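Re: that chain you flagged

S.,

Sorry for the slow reply, it's been a week of failed gels. I finally had a moment to sit down with the sequence you sent. For the record, here it is as I used it:
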Amino acid sequence: MFSQFIDSPLGPVQISATDHGISAISFVTTPRLAVPSALTERAATQLLAYFAGTLTQFDLPLAAQGTTFQHQVWRELCNVPFGTTCSYGDIARAISNIKAVRAVGAANGRNPVAIVVPCHRVIGANGTLTGYAGGLDKKAWLLKHEQRPQALLC
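Prediction finished late last night. Pasting the structure tokens below so you have them in one place:
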């Protein structure tokens, strides 16, 4: 297992990886001993570009641990475009399982690859911010960060 830390506008971020892909990206309070790899370096570069406002889509192999259903939800989350939001019901419809709204919410909450698998883009059906493992303040910041004028991305 490999790991690396970056400083972000939201505090330290830990990047974890196996030989096969990124297994976790999470907000931490204190960086610990790191054992970086080429893959964690690649993820760090992309995350820093995201925070700088020059990257809107990640290109990283993922190796998150989860159930088949969770992986289905996480794959669909990756289809939510930068700068947009959707509801848990939207994700349930997209995976052709409209009755699974609560299960989608649970899978969203268990997403181990924050930011890259953009669970922060899922909001309540009434437009309100709902839970985020990193905290609602971080979710609000990420959504605001993605709402900046697209002209800055050129």
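What I noticed first: The radius of gyration is 15 Å.

Talk soon,
D.
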